[in-house]
Design goal:
Layout (H helix, E strand, L loop, with lengths): L5 H5 L8 E8 L4 E8 L1 E10 L7 H12 L6 E7 L4 H5 L24 H13 L5 E7 L4 E3 L2 E5 L6 H10 L4 E5 L6 H7 L4 E6 L7 H18 L14 E3 L18 E5 L6 E2 L4 E6 L7 E4 L4 E7 L3 E2 L6 E4 L2
Parallel strand pairs: 3-4, 3-5, 5-9, 7-8, 8-10
Antiparallel strand pairs: 1-2, 2-4, 6-15, 7-9, 11-13, 11-16, 12-15, 13-14, 15-17
The structure holds zinc ion (ZN).
């Protein structure tokens, strides 16, 4: 069993000489590439993509920045990890193929655990432990199409207002906040009292140009907001905000489950407003029999739709949120 090298666990990425540095944390089996810009003393911002290996917006955006960003007035340290979960990414899968474990349910991980548990531990102990602000870039992956949002968890009075301000920077997305949930990278940040947000882009196995532009705009706003860069306060667009009080509501995998296997025929698009009880789609049985309608549990906006049209009983098909 391989454990993270002592070097990566003790390496202080906030104390590098000024300039851009590429460093690997961990080893070949459990590790990731990071690009670190060191400026004058200031905040320590961490941004990563591909916590799930089938989400490509974060990796694409961050590689663009790595290849082009040359700030001459940076305050603080900025650390980008385009692909956090390299094993899952190589397998074009949500989870690492060796243990099939969801990294976003594994934090803070274990030093002597499975591949995914060790990856969570490495990120938490070697990277997050030194951060002052954190962003985790997600999307719908292969299985889901999302009406993109920015979110955060927890109601710590010292942290939540900062998270709200960070989320507001991503003003092309609506905002969804909710109660604490265990296992997420957000949970590890919460435990360390580090203001943290996540972004959920469209997904569906691809990368939309408008999502990259919206992420890019949000990141530039956030650099000003947290003091990494000087500049006028950004002019932000108004952002719809919905606060869930029930953790169950934010579990995307439990809403509008397919009643049986078959073919999904959606009747609504992402962003559509629907009434409670209105028809969201039909499930056509694979062999014979009439289609089964799927009715909206509540009124609101359709923010999630299953992407593959082949469905199994219990698959989450839609999420409707009252925004
Ligand atoms: Zn994800």
């Amino acid at each position: 069993m391989t454990t993270p090298s002592a070097g990566s666990a003790t390496f202080d990425w906030t104390a590098l000489p000024p300039g851009l540095h590429q460093r690997r944390f961990g080893d070949e089996e459990v590790g990731f590439e990071a690009w670190i810009w060191q400026g004058q003393p200031g905040p320590a911002l961490v941004v990563n993509g591909a916590t799930h290996g089938d989400e490509y917006e974060g990796p694409t955006l961050l590689r663009h920045w790595v290849g082009s960003w040359q700030p001459d007035d940076l305050r603080g340290t900025v650390l980008f990890i385009p692909v956090l979960n390299e094993g899952a990414f190589a397998a074009t899968a949500r989870c690492h193929p060796v243990d099939g474990t969801d990294l976003a349910r594994t934090f803070p991980g274990r030093v002597d655990g499975t591949v995914t548990e060790r990856l969570a531990h490495l990120f938490d102990s070697a990277v997050l432990a030194r951060a002052t602000h954190y962003i985790d870039l997600h999307s719908g992956g292969h299985a889901l199409a999302l009406y993109p949002w920015v979110g955060y968890i927890g109601d710590d009075p010292n942290v939540a207002p900062i998270q709200r301000a960070m989320a507001a920077c991503f003003d092309q997305f609506w905002c969804w906040s909710g109660p604490f949930l265990p296992g997420r990278s957000m949970s590890a940040a919460f435990a360390r009292q580090i203001p943290a947000i996540y972004v959920e882009c469209f997904g569906a196995g691809g990368v939309r140009k408008q999502d990259l532009a919206a992420l890019d705009r949000g990141l530039r706003h956030l650099f000003n907001e947290i003091g990494c860069l000087d500049g006028p306060a950004p002019t932000l667009a108004p952002q719809p905000h919905y606060q869930s009080t029930e953790a169950e509501e934010t579990h995307l995998q439990v809403h509008h489950p397919a009643p049986h296997a078959g073919t999904l025929e959606p009747k609504v698009d992402l962003g559509d407003r629907v009434d409670g009880g209105s028809q969201l789609g039909l499930i056509w049985p694979t062999h014979d029999g009439p289609p089964t309608p799927v009715w909206a549990e509540t009124e609101g906006t359709v923010v999630l739709r299953r992407h593959p049209r082949s469905v199994q009983a219990g698959d989450s098909l839609f999420v409707v949120v009252p925004i």
